[in-house]
């Protein structure tokens, strides 16, 4: 194909193409695949939303005129749910005003039909360059996010945002409940940044006694306090050129908040007992599970420091909101711990996995790891039974909601969740929803949900429409 862009940023990226013209959809998919992209083609807005629930692409190409709903409505829903996801619109001459309006609302570009293939490839490359990973991280290389095990939509979106903001030097505040993996995310951002070869220094502000925290962070000179028999460099200086991660920043004493604010403003650090400042080049990432707005209202956290730290906010979802991640995480934890303890354990019994998936997880990923370590240590058979999981959980599992209990406006998300949990098995999904298979198939058809696309290893190119 003329106009190939083989070395474009994001080459090999996953693209979602939406068009009800089966011939054009097939042609576009063939051309983009020939140019090295991984393509998912769908013929309706509902099918596009279903695919977005399964896997977040790097870019969406959509016709404005679609049969089931207006393409502008689809674009606005994508923009609302996935603001960092670039969208290219395809339009006939009569819908150019709509396309122009969409670009003012955030669409990356629009092309009129018939469009020039070379121009389309150029626009794709340009759009992908905006969300391309850091120069030292290849698109096919997930080393930057090592330890963050996920196949859930919400985590995919969060990691896509994390990779985008990693390219800047902006301070980032990571919010999330205890045990959600805030330090893992901070480390991932560091590895995806230009500072990846410099130190990543993590300090838990709530775990170090107040009397020692100032010296730990900023260092001290000889004689600065009783017992200071020599000078010592602080963790801020140790992170020079790299990233300093301040965990549980909400627990930092007010006196040290003032000193940290001065470092952020002046980019100079003064050791305890010294009047001489030393320039530092350090990026600050911080995390908290506390409500900092409430802490500011109570005078326990400085407002000026809050705005310095909270240039960008990333929020880690609790494990209960990403249940499809429980199985891959539990399985990987089990294999790792089995090797550590020299156990011959291969996996979980199906009812044991269901109990893990439906548990409440107040302690999040940390609790899941502890539960898996518990069952691995006590395992006497290759498969972990339900009884052992229930013993480790110490709380009753949550009951899977029946379909009738789900609210109507969340119907599509409910069906998607069931298909994810059952790996696309319609019989199992219908059983969990307490519906017969015929009725369940009608529900899937209503939302253009193809159960086969939820099965492991399923093809990402939609089957040709049968009109």
Automatic annotation (TrEMBL):
The modification 4-aspartylphosphate is found at residue 63. Residues 14-128 form the Response regulatory domain. Residues 148-377 form the Sigma-54 factor interaction domain. Keywords: ATP-binding, DNA-binding, Nucleotide-binding, Phosphoprotein, Transcription, Transcription regulation. SUPFAM superfamilies: CheY-like, Homeodomain-like, P-loop containing nucleoside triphosphate hydrolases. InterPro entries: AAA+_ATPase, AAA_lid_NorR, CheY-like_superfamily, Homeodomain-like_sf, P-loop_NTPase, Sig_transdc_resp-reg_receiver, Sigma_54_int, Sigma_54_int_dom_ATP-bd_1. The keyword NADP does not apply. This is Sigma 54-interacting transcriptional regulator. It comes from Duganella zoogloeoides.
């Amino acid at each position: 194909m003329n106009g190939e862009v083989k070395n474009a940023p994001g080459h090999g990226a996953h693209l979602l193409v939406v068009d009800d013209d089966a011939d054009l959809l097939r042609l576009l998919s063939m051309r983009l695949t020939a140019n090295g992209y991984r393509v998912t083609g769908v013929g309706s807005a509902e099918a596009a939303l279903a695919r977005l629930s399964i896997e977040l692409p790097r870019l969406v190409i959509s016709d404005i005129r679609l049969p089931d709903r207006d393409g502008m409505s689809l674009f606005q829903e994508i923009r609302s749910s996935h603001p960092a996801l670039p969208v290219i619109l395809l339009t006939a001459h009569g819908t150019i005003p709509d396309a122009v309006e969409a670009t003012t609302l955030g669409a990356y570009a629009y092309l009129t039909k018939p469009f020039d293939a070379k121009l389309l490839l150029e626009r794709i490359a340009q759009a992908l360059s905006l969300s391309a990973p850091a120069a030292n991280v290849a698109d096919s290389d997930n080393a930057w996010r090592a330890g963050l095990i996920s196949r859930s939509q919400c985590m995919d979106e969060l990691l896509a945002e994390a990779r985008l903001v990693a390219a800047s030097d902006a301070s980032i505040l990571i919010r999330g409940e205890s045990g959600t993996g805030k330090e893992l995310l901070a480390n991932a951002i560091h590895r995806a940044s230009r500072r990846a070869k410099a130190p990543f220094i993590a300090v838990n502000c709530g775990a170090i006694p107040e009397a020692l925290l100032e010296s730990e962070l900023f260092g001290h000179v000889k004689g600065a306090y009783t017992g200071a028999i020599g000078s010592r460099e602080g963790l801020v200086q140790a992170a020079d050129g790299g990233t300093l991660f301040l965990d549980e920043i909400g627990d930092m004493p007010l006196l040290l908040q003032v000193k940290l604010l001065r470092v952020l403003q002046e980019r100079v650090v003064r050791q305890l007992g010294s009047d001489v400042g030393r320039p530092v080049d350090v990026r600050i990432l911080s995390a908290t599970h506390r409500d900092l707005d409430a802490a500011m209202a109570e005078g326990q956290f400085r407002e000026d420091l809050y705005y310095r730290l909270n240039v960008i906010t990333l929020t880690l979802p609790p494990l209960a909101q990403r249940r499809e991640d429980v199985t891959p995480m539990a399985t990987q934890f089990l294999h790792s711990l089995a090797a550590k303890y020299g156990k011959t354990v291969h996996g979980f019994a199906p009812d044991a996995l269901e109990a893990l998936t439906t548990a409440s997880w107040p302690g999040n990923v940390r609790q899941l790891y502890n539960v898996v370590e518990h069952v691995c240590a006590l395992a006497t058979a290759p498969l972990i039974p339900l009884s052992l999981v229930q013993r480790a959980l110490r709380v009753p599992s949550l009951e899977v909601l029946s379909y009738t209990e789900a609210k109507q406006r969340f119907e599509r998300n409910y069906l998607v969740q069931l298909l994810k949990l059952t790996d696309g098995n319609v019989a199992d999904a219908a059983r969990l929803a307490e519906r017969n298979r015929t009725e369940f198939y009608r529900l899937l058809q209503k939302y253009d949900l193809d159960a086969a696309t939820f099965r492991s290893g399923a093809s990402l190119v939609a089957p040709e429409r049968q009109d």
